């Protein structure tokens, strides 16, 4: 990253050729001269990335009678700073401004710092960054080309990003959207909007991730903290949508007269229903054991008893022809009643099958609601409260 800095640059050195006796010149202690008329050290910013460098010759120097020269002027610097975006948007960076002579070695020009830290009293508050410190350190480096030492003075600008903008405009809306998406498991399957809600939230979180990527410098060294959060959110939403499809499949599976397996009944109705406090609903609507065999109504047996002529309280006074016609009519009626009973029993069985699958889907939906709520809260707290080492 390129950092633009507006600084007040203070330089002081001593020139033995510019000394005088104050009493010989009417007590003049200092004079002001232009920089083009005196010698000045070629102090250069080593990590400067400006395409053109203009000498600040418009600013004059103040020369003391002792030969001490002060050259103070404002300057705008453009330097390179390597960023560590691991904890973005809670990141802190240390950007160095390394000053040294480009021509003279340490034997000819001894460069030292005037203080142990830079003066930050005139720092202008920035809405995006906070200046925490500005230490100054003198270094002496020996290069392979030359045996002489080359001193330099390095100002380290320590800045910390203010995360309110990113938290309020990116992270907080994402947390709310993800929280709403968890409620998709509470949405009834009959509404037909469970999958649509999950896909919409997934696309929304993806758009937020693209906005974050646009606001960060391009780099492949680390995955930023906020990027990890959005990737985790996308993974949670994808898994949530997949589970929603599975729940919908369970809910409508009973329409094809598929029986609920006994092992699934035991797991869902016997175990998971207790966890999510739905045991009472299950007991009122589901059957744990499937009844086998056919049961006919009592009136059918009564009519069969009378058809066979075995009714104990009825006189056998019907003529043979009339009795035959009556028996045939009764057999037809009995056949219709048996078909009606069979269809009613089949319909009841299909309805019971649909009810049991809907109960399975309801219990699984409630379990997934609690599970994804816990996962979402845990992931959000874990990632967003990861403390950087400098806090």
Overview of this structure, please?
This protein has 391 residues and is of the alpha+beta class. Helix content is 42%, strand content 18%. The protein contains 7 helices and 9 strands. The protein has helices spanning 164-182, 194-214, 225-253, 262-275, 279-285, 298-307, 320-384; strands at residues 2-14, 30-33, 43-45, 61-64, 68-80, 92-101, 129-133, 136-142, 149-161. Strands 3, 6, 7, 8 and 9 form a 5-stranded antiparallel sheet that branches. The radius of gyration is 44 Å and the shape is rod-shaped. The two termini are 23 Å apart.
The main pleated sheet reads as:
5 strands, antiparallel
Distance between the termini: 23 Å
| Sequence stretches where pLDDT stays below 50 over 5 or more residues | 288-318
Q: How does the helix and strand content classify structurally?
A: alpha+beta
Order of helices and strands: EEEEEEEEEHHHHHHH
Question: Percent range for helical residues?
Answer: 40-55%
Number of helices: 7
Computed Rg: 44 Å
User: Got a strand count?
Assistant: 9
Overall shape:
rod-shaped
Strand percent estimate: 15-25%
Task: Set down the secondary structure blueprint.
Elements lengths: L1 E13 L15 E4 L9 E3 L15 E4 L3 E13 L11 E10 L27 E5 L2 E7 L6 E13 L2 H19 L11 H21 L10 H29 L8 H14 L3 H7 L12 H10 L12 H65 L7
Antiparallel strand pairs: 1-5, 2-4, 3-6, 4-5, 6-9, 7-9, 8-9
Features:
18% strand; 5-stranded antiparallel beta sheet; 4-stranded antiparallel beta sheet; 42% helix; rod-shaped; 391 residues; alpha+beta
Question: What's this model, at a glance?
Answer:
It is built from seven helices and nine strands.
């Amino acid at each position: 990253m390129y950092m633009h800095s507006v600084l007040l640059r203070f330089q002081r050195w001593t020139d033995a050729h510019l000394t005088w006796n104050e009493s010989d010149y009417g007590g003049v202690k200092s004079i002001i001269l232009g920089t083009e008329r005196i010698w000045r050290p070629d102090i250069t910013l080593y990590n400067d990335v400006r395409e053109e460098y203009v000498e600040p010759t418009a600013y004059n120097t103040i020369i003391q009678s002792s030969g001490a020269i002060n050259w103070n002027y404002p300057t705008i610097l453009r330097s390179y700073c390597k960023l560590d975006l691991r904890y973005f948007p809670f990141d802190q960076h240390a950007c160095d401004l390394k000053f040294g002579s480009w021509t003279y070695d340490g034997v000819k020009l001894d460069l030292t710092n005037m203080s142990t830290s830079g003066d930050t009293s005139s720092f202008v508050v920035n809405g995006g960054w906070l200046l925490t410190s500005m230490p100054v350190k003198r270094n002496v480096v020996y290069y392979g080309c030359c045996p002489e030492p080359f001193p330099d003075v390095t100002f380290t600008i320590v800045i910390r990003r203010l995360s309110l903008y990113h938290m309020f405009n990116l992270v907080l809306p994402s947390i709310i959207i993800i929280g709403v998406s968890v409620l998709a498991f509470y949405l009834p399957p009959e509404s037909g909007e469970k999958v649509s809600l999950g896909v919409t939230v997934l696309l929304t979180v993806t758009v937020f991730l693209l906005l974050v990527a646009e606001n960060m410098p391009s780099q492949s060294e680390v995955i930023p903290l906020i990027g990890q959060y959005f990737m985790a959110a996308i993974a949670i939403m994808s898994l949530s949508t997949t589970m929603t499809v599975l729940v919908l499949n369970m809910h409508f599976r009973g329409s094809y007269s598929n029986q609920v397996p006994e092992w699934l009944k035991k797991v869902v109705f016997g175990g998971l229903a207790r966890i999510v406090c739905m045991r009472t609903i299950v007991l009122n609507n589901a059957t744990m054991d499937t009844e086998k065999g056919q049961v006919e109504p009592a009136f059918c047996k009564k009519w069969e008893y009378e058809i066979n002529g075995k009714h104990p309280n009825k006189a056998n006074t019907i003529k043979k022809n009339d009795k035959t016609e009556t028996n045939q009519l009764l057999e037809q009626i009995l056949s219709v009643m048996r078909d009606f009973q069979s269809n009613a029993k089949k319909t009841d069985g299909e309805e019971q099958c649909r009810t049991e699958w809907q109960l399975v889907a309801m219990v699984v939906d409630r379990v997934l609601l609690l599970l994804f709520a816990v996962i979402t809260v845990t992931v959000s707290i874990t990632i967003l409260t990861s403390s950087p080492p400098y806090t």
